[in-house]
Design a protein that fits this description.
Oligomer: single chain
Largest sheet: 8 strands, mixed
Radius of gyration: 22 Å
Distance between the termini: 10 Å
Shape: globular
Structural class: alpha/beta
Number of strands: 14
Number of helices: 15
Helix content: 25-40%
Strand content: 15-25%
Length: about 400
């Protein structure tokens, strides 16, 4: 029996998202989420997609990631999809930060774990959780290939002129300071899906990808390879986000230290958790912000305008970087669902060949689609992202042929 199933794990500090896919036809067999790990109110929601069955939930204390994955394994086994199945080819893990070293999906061994651990200082919130998930999964199935798929890998094709910051080279190299970029699996998937939507090979297409969720990032993709991206050393740089400030004069930090008397930790919390949309208007849900705008709320209107202003600047900047743009693709929660954001982001850019058709833009659908009028020189697309499928695809391409 051939092994064609891939289990995708996305381990957060107190959660585990998972999907089981059969790569023969990219069919999802099961999906679920364990949240509030380590609390008395832990919750596991499991959906058996292969049978069309109803979702199941279990609540109560789940002490740690080991207990969480064992609970996931029990739910899968109840559907005849257990981790001991000979059809399971590998487990693919989302790892947020791979630095310069990891430029492609990688089979995990002790040396790989050590390198991911060394990168914790540049991804203190994410890499430790990713490591916990990997170690737990390896303990459960030590015989099974485990593959790390890195958020940063897609962006390692950036030229040094885009990846380097203009600071002392020795200092930058010593402390690994450079632009790494994030959301790479999404940008990779969406750029390829956009090329497919246009009926072209990715190598023929230049795309600006706008991944707009609570976290948000833009990328310039030339011929299937990233040449620039908005997030940097950390996910703080770039676009205005739900709770992150995005681009800002670094001297603001010194000012807050010297004049505001704030500590480094307090400023870190301010810029990552109390800025962006929530800092500007008290809400980080775009639906709520639009509702407030409709009711005449000026603070919400200003927050929206600042968000769009930054977004539009990046579209223009990446147009200049690419020289020729075939498509602008919106994706992720806001990008896929907030028609006013898409309309406002390209408004006034008609001279660049960008336009949105109001009727097409208002349509809600789960499939990739064009929302630009036929006369537009540059296609504007809505392309639902699928990071789990991308992780599974990369994992299976690496180990599936040998399983």
């Amino acid at each position: 029996m051939s092994s064609t199933r891939i289990l995708v794990l996305n381990s957060g500090s107190s959660s585990v998202k998972y999907q089981l896919l059969d790569m023969r036809d990219e069919r999802r067999l099961a999906a679920g989420l364990v949240e509030r790990i380590g609390e008395q109110t832990s919750r596991l929601k499991h959906t058996p997609l292969h049978s069309g069955g109803d979702s199941r939930e279990r609540t109560g204390p789940i002490a740690d990631h080991e207990a969480a994955l064992k609970a996931v394994a029990e739910e899968l086994a109840a559907d005849g999809l257990g981790l001991d199945s000979p059809e399971l080819a590998a487990i693919g893990h989302r790892v947020v930060h791979g630095g310069k070293h990891f430029t492609a999906p990688t089979v995990i061994d002790d040396a790989v774990l050590t390198e991911i651990e060394r990168l914790i200082p540049v991804a203190p919130l994410h890499n430790p959780a990713n490591l916990t998930g990997i170690r737990t999964a390896r303990a459960l199935r030590p015989d099974l290939p485990q593959v790390a798929v890195f958020d940063t890998a897609f962006h390692t094709t950036m030229p040094e002129s885009a990846a380097r910051y203009a600071i002392d080279v020795k200092t930058a190299d010593e402390h690994r300071i450079r632009r790494y970029g994030f959301h790479g699996t999404s940008h990779a998937y969406v750029s390829r899906a956009t090329a497919k939507l246009l009926g072209k090979d990715p190598s023929e297409v230049n795309v600006i990808v706008l991944h707009l969720g609570n976290g948000a990032s833009a990328s310039a993709v030339r011929g299937g390879k990233c040449v620039d991206t908005s997030m940097g050393l950390t996910p703080l740089e770039g676009l205005v986000m739900g709770t992150r400030s995005g681009d800002m004069d670094p001297a603001v930090i010194f000012h807050l230290m010297r004049v505001g008397g704030m500590s480094a930790d307090e400023i870190d919390t301010l810029l990552n958790k109390k800025s962006g949309l929530i800092g500007l208007c008290g809400d980080n849900d775009m639906r709520e912000i639009r509702r407030r705008i409709d009711e005449g709320d000026e603070q919400a209107r200003l927050a929206f305008d600042i968000y769009i202003h930054r977004l539009k600047k990046y579209i223009g900047a990446y147009y200049a970087v690419l020289g020729r743009v075939d498509a602008v693709a919106f994706t992720a929660g806001v990008g896929e669902n907030a028609a006013p954001v898409r309309e406002a982001a390209v408004a006034g850019l008609e001279e660049l060949g960008l336009a949105v058709d109001g009727e097409l833009n208002a349509v809600r659908a789960d499939e990739p689609r064009l929302i630009s009028p036929e006369y537009a020189r540059v296609a504007v697309a809505v392309v639902p992202t699928d990071e789990e499928l991308e992780i599974a695809t990369q994992t299976y391409a690496l180990v599936g042929k040998n399983s």
